[in-house]
Design brief:
The chain is α+β, with helices and mostly antiparallel strands and about 200 residues long. It contains four helices and ten strands, in the order αβββββααβββββα. The longest helix is centred in the C-terminal third of the chain and has 21 residues.
C-alpha cells in the first residue's frame, strides 16, 4: 500500500510539476524541484536553484520525506521561467535506483562528483568526491576539498547518508578545477608545461 507521501510524489512526477519536499525530522530546509523518479524507497529530484534554473539532482530516501507541497504559490512562474529557458526536467541516464548504494555508485560513474549529506548525524555538512566502493555498509569516497584539492579517502556509514547531490553547477565546478590542476601537474612532470 502506498503512503500519502508516495502518492503525492508519483502525482508530481506524472504532472512534471515543481514541488517542495520537506524532511522535517532532518531539520533541513525544503528542497524545490521536479520529481523525475520515485520508487518505494527513493526519490530523485531535479533541483531548482534560486535563479529558477534546473541545477543537478538530489537523491533522497522516501522514508525521510515528511511533506510534499504540490500547490506552490509561484508554480506558474517557475514553469514559465523553465519553459522560456528551454529547460525540461530529465531523468539522468545510468542512475540505478534499486537501492541507495546502487544510486550512489551509479551517480559516481555517470557524473564526475557526488555530494554526500549525512544530515541526521552531521546537519549542514556534506562530503564531496568520487565514490570508490561500498564495503560492509560503509561508503568510501575519494574526497575533494572546497578548494578543489584531492585529499585522500573519506569513510562514512551508508546508514548515515540521507541525501546525495550530483550534476549540479558546484560539483561540476569543483571537478573542472581539479581536472585542470591535475592536467597542469601531469604536464609539468612530463616537461610539457603549458602556461
Amino acid at each position: 500500500m502506498l503512503s500519502a507521501i508516495n502518492r503525492d510524489l508519483q502525482t508530481a512526477q506524472k504532472r512534471h510539476q515543481v514541488i517542495s519536499v520537506a524532511r522535517k525530522r532532518l531539520k533541513e530546509k525544503p528542497l524545490l524541484g521536479v520529481v523525475v523518479v520515485v520508487t518505494s524507497d527513493l526519490v530523485l529530484l531535479h533541483r531548482l536553484d534560486d535563479g529558477i534554473r534546473l541545477d543537478g539532482y538530489s537523491l533522497l530516501r522516501s522514508r525521510d520525506v515528511t511533506r510534499v507541497d504540490l500547490e506552490l504559490p509561484r508554480a506558474k512562474f517557475y514553469h514559465e521561467a523553465l519553459r522560456l529557458r528551454r529547460q525540461r526536467p530529465r531523468r539522468p541516464r545510468g542512475i540505478d535506483l534499486t537501492e541507495l548504494a546502487a544510486g550512489i555508485m551509479s551517480a559516481g560513474l555517470a557524473f564526475p562528483l557526488v555530494a554526500v549529506h549525512p544530515e541526521r548525524k552531521h546537519p549542514g555538512i556534506c562530503w564531496i568526491g568520487r565514490p570508490l566502493a561500498i564495503q560492509a555498509n560503509e561508503l568510501v569516497l575519494a574526497y575533494i576539498t572546497p578548494g578543489a584539492t584531492w585529499e585522500g579517502e573519506h569513510h562514512c556509514r551508508l546508514s548515515d547518508v540521507t541525501r546525495i547531490d550530483f550534476g549540479g553547477a558546484y560539483e561540476e565546478s569543483l571537478a573542472l578545477v581539479a581536472e585542470a590542476r591535475s592536467s597542469k601537474s601531469r604536464a609539468r612532470r612530463t616537461g610539457k608545461s603549458k602556461s
